[in-house]
Structures are given as structure tokens and as C-alpha cells.
Amino acid sequence: MEEIVKLESIDQYNKLRGVETLHPLVSVINLSQANSLPVQTFNFNLYCVYLKELKCGELKYGRSHYDYQEGTLMFIAPGQVVGVQPKNGVQARGWSLAFHPDLINGTSLGKNIHEYSFFSYDVNEALHLSEKERQIVLDCFAKIQYELMHAIDHHSKKLITANIELFLHYCNRFYDRQFITRDHENKGTVEKFERVLHDYFLSDQPQQQGLPTVGYCADTLHLSANYFGDLIKKETGKSAQEYIQNKVIELAKERVFDFEKTISQVAYELGFKYPQHFTRLFKQRVGITPNEYRALN
């Protein structure tokens, strides 16, 4: 079994890269002036962002392989496992930003880090930058690097975290743009989602596995759950969970008119473990209970 190396600290990460540690909790590295990571699988306890400016290597992330392209950003969150498989003879060019979770404790960024869902995207869902966007990213990295070159004082943490947060805000904007401009890549995802739900409810899976989850639908479509959820939100204005619930209610409205079945039987066929949960959701969405709906119609 392959050994997995745990990356626990910024200093450990910097030593692998062959660069000096200027701050114990954050690092900005020009990859053209650093060592490549060894061919190894790493379990990150750090937040890492990679800006690649040259097609220079391959990552294995979960089940996916991804060849770096020019001008792409990839994000790694603590707890994620990444395998590095560089191509021989090609020197990396680009930048990396790494910061330890302790850096953002008690800060605005620490409270809001969960909002940057792209940290849980798969590598094949990386952010592709325009030249202007790339310049903005480099400017953010330069400001963070300036602070690292400055002697640590009581302003350091606030300025560093504020600039990281600014960078992540820009990434949110850039991903919004990508969902639009790369529409050909996303085209048909909602229709495929609808087909997954249609096939699921035509099968006996609801009785065996319960209601379909966002994770199940994303996995079926070969997308990460967060990327899938964000894409559905952008395309429909509803969360993926809301979309699933709407589908359930749509089917429920049809099936309650099968008078040979009780409301409990309808609930079980749709995947509800407890009929009262079905009744509660139906009333929340329709305004009346399934029994009342059946009687009124």
C-alpha cells in the first residue's frame, strides 16, 4: 500500500519546496524558483491554491486525473488527499498560496471559509482564468508576499487574511463568470439531472436506498457535490436539494390519486422512511396534507 504523507505545517510544505519559511502559518511560492513536490500522495492539513502558468504535470485527486493547463487555479482544503505525478523534465511555472487553518481562526475569513465551496471541487473543475483575471490573482499574491517580507507585527494577521479573503472573493466572481462562459461544458447538466431523478424514481431504488441525495446525483453525473450544487443553483435559481424536493412533490401529487394505495404506501414508494416526514414536506410545499389534497381533488 502506498504511503500517504501528511502535510501538517507550512514549514514542512516549504521544506519540500526548498524555500525559506517567512511566516509559520502562510506561504506564497514562485514555483519556477522552488522544488517540485516529490512523486507522492499527500494528505493536506493546509489550504492550498495553485496557479499554473505552464502545462507541467499531473495530479491525481480522488478518482480524477488532471493535466494542468496554462492559467488555471486549483484549490485544496484540509483533509483532502492529492497524488502528485509530475512529467519528467518539465519545470513547474506558476505560484502557490498555502495557509494553515490556524491563520484564519477568529477572523472574518475563518467565519466565512465555508462559503468558498470551490475548495471541494474536483481537479477537473478547476478555475480557468482570462489574462486580466490572472493579473488580479498575481496582484493579490504579491500583496500577501509583501506582508510576508515585512517583519511580523500586530497588523500582519489582519492584512494577510484580508488579502486572502479578497483573493477568494475574486475567485467567486471568476467562477460565476466561468459558469456562463463555459456554458458548452455545463450544457445539459440540468436535463441530465432530471433524467437521473426520473430513472431513480422509476426503479426500486427509493424503497432500497431512500430519497436520492445531492451526492448521489452528482456522483452519477461525475461531478463533485459542491460543483454540481453550485452549477444547479446558477442554472435554476434553486439548490440541488430544493430541486430534488420539488421533483418528489411533483411525483407525490400524481401518486396520491392512486386510491388503491394509502398515503403511507405512497410515502414508502417515494423513499421516505417515515410517512410523517412525507406529510410534513408535502404540507410545507403544497400548503395542505396529502390526505387533504387527495380529498380536495
From TrEMBL:
The keyword Transcription applies. Pfam families: HTH_18. It comes from the Bacteria. One of its GO terms (molecular function) is DNA-binding transcription factor activity. Keywords: DNA-binding, Transcription, Transcription regulation. Residues 195-296 form the HTH araC/xylS-type domain. The keyword Electron transport does not apply. SMART domains: HTH_ARAC. SUPFAM superfamilies: Homeodomain-like (SSF46689). PROSITE patterns: HTH_ARAC_FAMILY_2 (PS01124). InterPro entries: Homeodomain-like_sf, HTH_AraC, Tscrpt_reg_AraC-type_HTH. This is Helix-turn-helix domain-containing protein. It comes from Chitinophaga jiangningensis.
